[in-house]
Amino acid sequence: MVVLNKIYTRSGDDGTTALGNGDRVAKDAARVEAYGTVDELNAFVGVARLKSRKETDVALARIQNDLFDLGADLCRPDNDADQDAESPPLRMVQQQIDRLEQEIDIMTGQLEPLRSFILPGGKKLAARLHVCRTVARRAERLTVRLAEAETVNITAILYLNRLSDWFFVAARMANNGGKDDVLWVPGANR
């Protein structure tokens, strides 16, 4: 259980922060950039929820919880030699990806196939979900970059990849089942 009695500790005043295993690293370290962007994504999901209806809101609430799991995964090095058997690090699991894929398949089954790329926009919720999609892609890129230098749970990367797909399809659903998608017209302003 987490207990936060004091929000500021001054321990980060020197430009470092603690990872989940207690190691201190620079606040701009690749690992901190990755899980910090996941936190940013979670905040954008919270904004999207302001305009979501029940079924979408329930799914977004699950995603927010998953994003906290993902942040916990990323803030604890995967090769941590000090792993406690009684309190193992929280890691993303395949079941979380499977759920996203099932939801994507259900939503996609209700949409007409795309015949053009779409521009981010349309309804307010759709536009907010497109922002979530792009931040998820950035989090994915940063996590891939982290994985080039350090050991990372591959399931974390796969989750982010699938999550951005989920946001894309959910944005289409929010655009009146794709009817209000804003289509890209190549060269339209030449």
From TrEMBL:
Pfam family, one: Cob_adeno_trans
Biological pathway: Cofactor biosynthesis; adenosylcobalamin biosynthesis; adenosylcobalamin from cob(II)yrinate a,c-diamide: step 2/7
Xref: InterPro entries: CblAdoTrfase-like, CblAdoTrfase-like_sf, PduO-typ
Main location: cytoplasm
Domain Cobalamin adenosyltransferase-like residues, every copy: 7-174
Keywords: ATP-binding, Cobalamin biosynthesis, Cytoplasm, Nucleotide-binding, Transferase
Enzyme class per UniProt: transferase
Catalytic activity: 2 cob(II)yrinate a,c diamide + reduced [electron-transfer flavoprotein] + 2 ATP = 2 adenosylcob(III)yrinate a,c-diamide + 2 triphosphate + oxidized [electron-transfer flavoprotein] + 3 H(+); 2 cob(II)alamin + reduced [electron-transfer flavoprotein] + 2 ATP = 2 adenosylcob(III)alamin + 2 triphosphate + oxidized [electron-transfer flavoprotein] + 3 H(+)
EC number assigned by the record: 2.5.1.17
GO CC, any one term: cytoplasm
GO biological process: cobalamin biosynthetic process
SUPFAM superfamilies (UniProt xref): Cobalamin adenosyltransferase-like
Coiled-coil intervals: none
Domain of life: Bacteria
GO molecular function, one term: corrinoid adenosyltransferase activity
Intracellular or extracellular location(s): Cytoplasm
UniProt record similarity statement: Belongs to the Cob(I)alamin adenosyltransferase family.
Protein name (database record): Corrinoid adenosyltransferase
